[in-house]
Each structure stands twice: as C-alpha cells, then as structure tokens.
Amino acid sequence: MNSIRKNKVFMAVLYVLVFLLLAEWLTPVMSLTATAHKSLFLIFIGLGLVMALARVPWWISGPVKIVYILWFIVYVYTGQAFFSNSSIVFLWSDFTANFIALTSQNWAETTDIFRTVLFFALLWMAVYLIHYWVSFRLSIFLFYLLTVVFIAVLDTFSPYTGDTAIIRIMVIGLMLAGLLHLARWIETHRIPVRIDKIAVYIIPLLFMVAASTAVALYLPKAGPIWPDPVPYITSFSGEAGTGPGTIGRIGYGVDDSQLGGSFIGDDTPVFRAEVEDGQYWKVESKDFYTTKGWRVTRNAGDKFVYGNEEQVDTDFTPGDPEQETTALLSMEQEFPFVLYPYGTKSFLMNETPDYEYDTADQRFDTFFEGEVFEPELYEVEFSEPSFSLTALQETSVEDLEELPAEFDRFVQLPEELPQRVRDLAVEITESSDSVYDKTRAIERYFSNNNFEYSQQDIPVPEEGQDYVDQFLFETKRGYCDNFSTSMVVLLRSLDIPARWVKGFNEGELINSSDGRDIYEITNNNAHSWVEAYMPGVGWMLFEPTIGFTGSSDVDFDLETGETTLEDVEMPDRPDPLQPEEPEVDAAGTGITGPTFRERLNQFFTENKAKIVWGLIGLALLAAILFKMRSKWLPKVLIPYYRTRSGSAQTFEKAYLRLLKQLDLYGIKRRDGQTLRSYAAYIDSFFGTHEMSRLTAAYEQSVYGGNSDSVNWNELKESWENLINRTSG
Amino acid sequence: MKAQERLEQVIDNIEKVIIGKRNIAELSIVAMLSHGHVLLEDVPGVGKTMLVRALAKSVGADFKRIQFTPDLLPSDVIGVSIYNPKDMEFHFRPGPIMGNIVLADEINRTSPKTQSSLLEAMEEASVTIDGVTMQIPKPFFVMATQNPVEYEGTYPLPEAQLDRFLLKIKMGYPSSKEEMEVLSRSQISAPIEDLQSVITLEELIRLQEEVKLVKVDETIRSYIVELARHTRTEPYVYLGVSPRGSIALMKASQAYAMLKGRDYVTPDDVQHLAKFVFGHRIMLRSEARYDGVTAEEITDRILAKTRVPVQRYVGQ
Questions:
Q1: Which chain A residue is nearest to residue B268, measuring alpha carbons?
Q2: In A, which residues are within 8 Å of B310 by CB distance?
Q3: Is residue A169 part of a domain?
Q4: What pLDDT is attached to residue A231?
Q5: Which domain holds residue A675?
Q6: A195-199, A671-675, B160-164: which has the minimum mean pLDDT?
Q7: Nearest CA in chain B to A648
Q8: Is a pLDDT exceeding 60 seen at residue A381?
Q9: How far is B4 from chain A (nearest CA, A)?
Q10: Cβ atoms of residues A15 and A172 within 8 Å
Q11: What per-residue confidence (pLDDT) applies to B172?
Q12: pLDDT 10s digits, B169-203
C-alpha cells in the first residue's frame, strides 16, 4: 500500500515542524540554566530527526550521535582538536572520575560533563519518542499540549518570557496536529497519496491556522484576572523577593595564574560612580609573575584596619587638599571589598564596617562584626596624587640598588624568562637616563611598534612558552593584560620595582549634573595596568595599553623645555578605540567566569554563522549526494565490479546491486513481482534484451543452484550496459 | 532439452483439436506428469471431452469415459464381479475406471457415495473389490468435469475430496476468432479422428520419474510455504491451503519447469500454477460470496503481497 508515511516530502515537513517545536523546548531550558551552545544542541536534535527521517539504521545513527556528543564535550570543555591524544585522555579521565563518583554514591562529585551527557541522553530520548509519535502513531497532540503547558508554566514562574514563543508554538503545533490528522485520515480511508492532492488539502489548514492566529493576535485581551501568582505564592512561603530561577551572577574571579585567550564583551553593570572626573578604580595588585600569569605572595605585607572616615594610608599620598573631592559608589554587583581611586583618604558608608588594608595586595577588604561584608553604597574621599617632574627627572638607577628588601618581591622574575625580553628592555631604555624616563620609554614602546589592541584570537601561551615573550615577539596583539604584564616584566628586568594592578577604568558617562558625572562601570571596564616605583618619589600609575588614557598627574615644574616636550606624550597615543567598552572582562582581570568558556563562547558567536551554515551545507551536500546516488553510484560500481573475480558470487552481488540501481532509477519491482517479469519490463523499457539474459543466469545460479554455469566475464558487458543506463 | 521437445509435441498435437487453449493443454500435461488429476469446471460444450480425448490419443493411452448421473452406482465406476455359470466362479469385470486416462464427466451430478468411490481410486491408484485389490494401469490420469456449483441438481464435492485434484481449471469460451476456426475445422469431419500419438506410455512414465528430479531450491520452498501460510490468514478465507496443497504446488511447479525446459523451479512457475492449485483449496467465508470475492482473486492478492525471494536462502 502506498502509505503517506512513505512520502518523504510530507514527512520532511512534519519533521521540520517537530524540530521547531523541540527548539521551543530547548530555548527556555538553555536560558534559564545559563547554558551556552544552544545551536550545538539544536544541531544534535536536527541530526537525530534527519537520521530518523532517513530511516538510518540504529547501528549507524547511534554511533554518529555518540561521536557527536563526545566531540561536543571535547570541543566545549577543552577546545582541543577532537582526534588527539589529549582529548581521549581527557574523556577517559572524566569518565573514570564520574564512574568512581557514581559507584561511591558521591553525587556531588560528578562533573559538568556528566550532566552534559545526561542532558544529551534526554534530548536523544525526546527525539526518539517524537519520532515514534510522528512516524508510527501519527499523533502529536499530547506532546503539543505538554509544550504549551511547559511554556506557560515557565512564563509564569520563571524569568523566562514566553510571549512570542507561545504564538510560535501555537502555530507550529496546529500545523503539526493538522497535518498528522490529514495523514491519519488518508490512511484510514486508503486514499492514494499524491503530493499535489495533499497540497490542496493543506491549503484550508494553512488558511485556518493563519486566520485563527491573526484573530487571536488582534483580539483585545483582558488583563489578568488574578495577580501575578509568584509574589502571592512566595508571600506564603515567607520568602518575598527574587523568584526562583535567577540567572547566575558573574562572580569576581581571583585567579590570574593563566592569562591569555579571547573574550567577548559583557556589559553587565558592576557599579555606578558619581565623581567629578572619571577615575581608575583599583581593587588590588599582584606581585608574582609565573611566566603564565600572576599570583600574590601571601603574608608579604602587613594588615591595617580602618574605620569609617578614618584616614587610610595607601602607597599613594593624596594630592593637594584643595583638589579634594568625593566619589559616591553604588554597587550593582556585590564584592567583599571596596574599590578606590588613586589618592584615597577615607571611606564612608552607613554601615560601620572595618576596612582591612593588606599591603601585600593593597586591597581593602570589608568586614562587619567579624563577618565578610559586601558594601552596597559608599563614599570615598580622595585627592589625585601629583608628582613633581623635577623629582622624577632625578630618579637614578643607582638609587634602585639601595632599596630595602621589601621591594625584592616587585623585581621578581621567573628564571625561565627568555633573554630576549631582557635584551628588549635594555634596548628600549638605552637612550633614557632617569628611572622615570626609562619607565616612560617602556610605557610608550607599545604604541609605536606595531602593537595592536584586540580581544579576539588571543592565544594562551603554550607549555614552556612565556606569556610576555609570546606577546612581545610573536603575536603583538592583545588587551590590557598583555600590555600591563609585559610592561611590568620589562621594568623588572631593569630592576625597576613594578606590580600588576587590577581594577576598573572610568566606565561610561551616563549622566552629568552640577559638575558631577555619573559613570556606569560594567564588566567590560575591568582593566589591568601598571604601578612602578620611582625611587625617591614613590609608586606611580602607568598605562601601557594602547587606547587607554589613565595616567599619573605630573606637575610640570621643570624649567628646561626639552623634557616637557617628551612628557607631552598624550596626543601621541592613538585615540581610544571604543571608549565606552574598551576593555574586556579578561580572565586576567578576573571579573568574569571561567576563561575558556568565555573563549569558546566568543569563538562560537563569531563563527556561529559559519558553523551553522557549514553544517547545513554539509548536511545538504550529503542529502543531495544520497538523493543523487543513482547518478554517481554506477561510476563507482562499474570499476569496482570490473576488478572482481569472475565467480558466481560476484555475479549475484552485482545483479542485486543492479536491482537496487533500477529501483533508484524509478523502476520499482513490486513485492509479488518475479525477477523474470521484472526483467521483461526492464527490457521493454530500455529496448534491450540484457536484463532477461542476466536474469536467466541469475535464476539458474540461485534457484537452479547451478552457479558453475554462470560466466561473469561474459555477463559483465550486459551488466555494465544496464547499470550505465540507470545513471542516464 | 529432449523432454521439453516431446512435451511440446504433445501440446501441439492437442492444439490441432482444441483451438486457443494451449494453456489448458499445458496444465493438463503438468497434472499428468506430476501424478495428479484435473478438475475442469465449466459449462457443457466448450471442449472438455475433446481435450481429454486429444490428450489420450497424443500419448497413445487407453481412454475411458464415465458419464456421471444421479443414479450411477460405485460398481458402475470401478467394476463388478459377475458369476459365470459355466465355470461357476465370479469373474471381475473392470469398470471404466480401469483405464489410463479417464474422463469423469459432470462429477457433481452423482451421489456422494459414487463420487467418493472415484476419488478413492484416484488417490490410491487401485481399486478393491470383494477383498481383492487391483492396480489401475499406469499412467493413471483422471480429468473430472463439473458444472459450476450454482447449477441445479448438483452434489457439491466435499472439501476433502476437492483436495485430491491437483489442479482446477476453467476452460472458458473461445474467442470469436477461435470459434470461427473451430467451425471451419469441424465442417467436414472431427479433427480428433486424424490425431496420431506422438509419445508412448513408457516415455510418459519415464518423464513422470524425471519430473521428481527437477530442483526445488530452498528459496522456492520457502516461497511456496509463505504463499500457503498467507492463504490461512486472509480475512475472507474460512479454510486455507493445507500442507497437501503446498506439496501439490511444488510438484506441479516441477512439472511446469520441465515443460519449460528447465531443471529447476523458478518463482514464475510457482506464480503461474498457484491459481490452479489453490483455487479449489481455499474455502471462502460466506461474506466473500456476498462481496463477490473469489478464491482466484484471493490467490492473486496473496501473490501480489508475498515477497518473491530473489536472494539465496539463508534461513530465518
């Protein structure tokens, strides 16, 4: 019976609709769990449906899906090439870890990868079930109903908004249900399947769906009869406030031991600052360079505890008291410390916390009654430090040798540091005399030597490779971490004490009134820069990153003109690239989540179109090749069978292959049709006698059990002739 | 092949008398070669008797004819022992059954008692009278004719007895062109009178032995079994084909393969004969009769849906 289920076009339409419906399931799940790679999951679903549609046997589709899952894991969690030793090692170690965790019932120790696999298994099951519903039961209503309930519940109880999704689902679901009903109707009434007839049947369905959707959209809608149930319910549980399912907050990363890699922007606000002028907001500094990143030397300094409005003592003496000003910071994200501008005098907030200053990393941690405290709103009193150019000019290299031992950690360098880095530092500073001039020479070096500011395609140093060396001599592309770390290392190689500072830059000016500006600082404004010690003067801020304007306020108190020229370097700098989002939430500055996920995110967003289109292209190509196989297969088969031995076995295989080809060509053999009558038809169709000749030989071989009589070499020509016709 | 040529000659010979019924002639020979018997179902006057006579003449066989009437007794068929006053002994006088080729005309006109006596003789190829068993000479071939069952005054053959016939054939009317040819040939004298035998009885017996050697591959056997099994599950069918029917189909196919000059059976042979072997073995439900479905149609349906084996049999 010519079943509607065998109509590939019709079934393909159904499967596309099913795919769209499944995508609607996936969307809220992905967004609520903050899971990335939605498209890769969609591809998995699509792959499953396509294979189900093409009736790919399980022993092919199963392994394909498993390989896809493994590839996904390797790609997403390591970013390595799939076919490599390390990825196999990675998979194996993760497998054993999870296996041990499961067998010892330590559920919490199972890794994300395990959960990813479970999620894939769920998707696999869902695809299978729906394939079953659509292909065998010709019924989808239950799934459709569940989808509507699912979206409605999520829309009500979670941050997910299903306003447009519900419309899409209604349209897709009605189409699907309507088409399946049509299919069932055709089957029960045994109506011959003709695609043009089906198209005619579908027109009223399309019309009805379109009309009902349009009417539903334009009808006036009554307001909700009940208040939003969520606050109502939470009021009962005594837990008013944020509902469940809040999207994961990005935490403050403190691990800078592995710098490098690309990033994408993240404009999640971190805080707002009301100040007269934009400031660099310092969080902390790091002193120990590991060839890959930064660490803090623990217990290297002393801790001082200050109270509200108490004068704090940082390494930067506040400037002119007349310039004193205040900054009001309101935090959007909570950190257990305060951010402070250069020249900070004191902090003030409504609560009365302790501000614990650690000279090791110059961070002000906040505690309230001994507990870690996360400030929300506070005021900082500060006056920008100013430095005398005269004094700076007098900083001499000899003074560096007399610095006390506590400065040793600021000239620390790993022994593996390549010599060419040291040589470069010497080369850059050859023509400068004072420590200050040398430092400025290094600061300026990057803007004049073809360095490029970029957040994308920034590599992570490989095993045995130095982060700074890679940037200075190989890539010459990077963002703040590259520039600032390189400058610190170059300075240290000249024994100039320097440290790497993390914090935020000015941010975006969003409002201005009464001479006070309001800046919004987002994760994009996370930044890193340099502090260097000028002997006899003190610590100073330097900004080597191209496009950034942070600097120490230098008092041009010199009488000689020549040096002033040198100092007016600001115009030499290139304009800021994008002042509103100049810096990234690099791992180095540590404001965002795990680095490699960001990197992959970025890679994926950048190449999403390419990947999707590439895969679609590949799938299309495969589909076309499969569809066209009757055209090209003979070209493969003929040389193959030409080389085979002339045994009866070869002949039988070749003959069966020919039957398949003829079937593909469009001359189908009915179930009850004998080879002989089929051969007669083929011969009358092509005007040959060859099929009957081959068939007689085949019959003799198979039914007659007389394979010796078959001479493949004699029959070959007839066979080739026929199989060639099928490709015509 | 020699056998084929000889058989072709027989068929050609019959065709001289029966015009346009080559297929019927072939089937008759198939039945004869595989030790079977034929049930011809048709209205009188379409040449049933002529066919059998032509066949008998062509093989040089002894031809007997029994006209079945309602008052026919079994002894009228198989013979009777008559007391001879001269030597004071009973002498067996063989009935018309004791021939090589017997035409049992209008078999469904007689009582079941007489019918069964004939059918027993067909099955056993021997008759027993007064405790003495007598072999019927070989070859033994019965061609029974019956009027379509719907006619009045008939005793339909029971299922078990129908099973004894290898094939059931319907002659059908000749086409008008063929009928004109019949008229022209019969104008002067009946052509049957001039018919010569083309094959001896000994040859026929040898061919009957040869037929048994025609190869039936596993694939073909499985195909026959599949066909038989399908008859048992058809919704309209009350009683499907028995294993005896499967055997009949296989044997007939062997003979047909030989007739076509092959020493192996192909699915085409099976398909060609299935209708004639199964036609009288499928008992239909009464619903089938209301819906106008015949056993032949059911057979066609089964042939269309049963997958023809095209690959070497590998077991299941």
A1: A674
A2: 656, 659, 675, 702
A3: yes
A4: 56
A5: 626-725
A6: A195-199
A7: B312
A8: yes
A9: 17
A10: no
A11: 82
A12: 888 888 888 888 888 887 777 777 778 888 888 88
* B264 contacts in chain A (CB < 8 Å): 699-700, 703-706
Computed over every residue of chain A, the mean pLDDT equals 80
For residue A515, pLDDT beyond 80: no
pLDDT digit string (tens) for A599-621?
777 777 777 778 888 888 999 99
The model's pLDDT over B282-308, given as tens digits with 9 standing for 90+, comes to: 888 888 888 888 888 889 989 998 988
Question: Which residues in chain A have their CB less than 8 angstroms from residue B269's CB?
Answer: none
Is A656 in Cβ contact with B267 (below 8 Å)?
no
Q: Which of A652, A673, A705 sits opposite B215 (nearest CB)?
A: A705
pLDDT at A560: 47
Tell me what ipTM this predicted complex has. 0.82
Of the residues A218, A251, A286, which one is the last residue of a structural domain? A218
Quick check: is A580 in a domain? Answer: no
Predicted confidence band at A707 (pLDDT cuts at 50, 70, 90)?
confident
* CATH code where residue A434 lies: 3.10.620.30
Coil, strand or helix: which one is A531? Answer: strand
Contact partners, residue A318, CB within 8 Å, separation at least 6: A324, A343, A344, A345, A382, A383, A384, A385
Residues of B within 8 A of A700 (CB-CB) are 264
**Domain shared by A48 and A191, yes or no:** yes
Q: Does A633 touch chain B (CB under 8 A)?
A: no
Provide, as residue numbers in chain A, all residues whose Cβ is less than 8 Å from the Cβ of B312: 652, 702
Same-domain pairing of A635 and A530: no
| In a shared domain, residues A548 and A642 | no
Q: Residues 678..717 of A with a Cβ closer than 8 Å to B: which?
A: 699-700, 702-706
Q: Identify whether residues A38 and A174 lie together within a single domain.
A: yes
Nearest-by-Cβ selection for A671 from B220, B262, B307: B307
| Contact (CB, 8 A) for A593 and A253 | yes
Question: CA nearest A245: which of A153, A165, A164, A336?
Answer: A153
Q: Does the distance separating the beta carbons of A705 and B308 come in below 8 Å?
A: no
Q: Count Cβ atoms within 10 A of the Cβ of residue A257 and give its class: 0-12 exposed, 13-18 middle, 19 or more buried.
A: middle
Question: Best interface-test mutation with A: which of B215, B310, B311, B313 has the largest number of A CBs within 10 A?
Answer: B310
pLDDT per residue as tens digits for the range A202-245: 888 889 889 988 888 888 777 666 555 555 555 554 443 333 33
Residues A631 and A552 in one domain: no
Residues A407-422 have pLDDT tens digits of 888 888 888 888 888 8
Say yes or no: A539 and A638 in one domain. no
Is pLDDT at B163 greater than 90 in this prediction? no
Chain A residues near residue B306 by CB distance under 8 angstroms? 671-672
Q: Across the interface, do A699 and B266 touch by the CB < 8 Å criterion?
A: yes
The residue with greater pLDDT, A570 or B155, is: B155
Q: Per-residue pLDDT for A301 more than 60?
A: yes
A546 plus A671 within the same structural domain: no
Residue A586 in any domain: the answer is: no
- Does the residue A228 lie in any domain? no
- Predicted local distance difference test score (pLDDT) of residue B109: 86
Highest mean pLDDT among A19-33, A393-407, A488-502, A642-656: A488-502
- B217 closest CB neighbour out of A674, A675, A705: A705
- Say how many domains are in chain A: 3
Chain A residues whose beta carbon lies within 8 Å of the beta carbon of residue B267: 674-676, 703
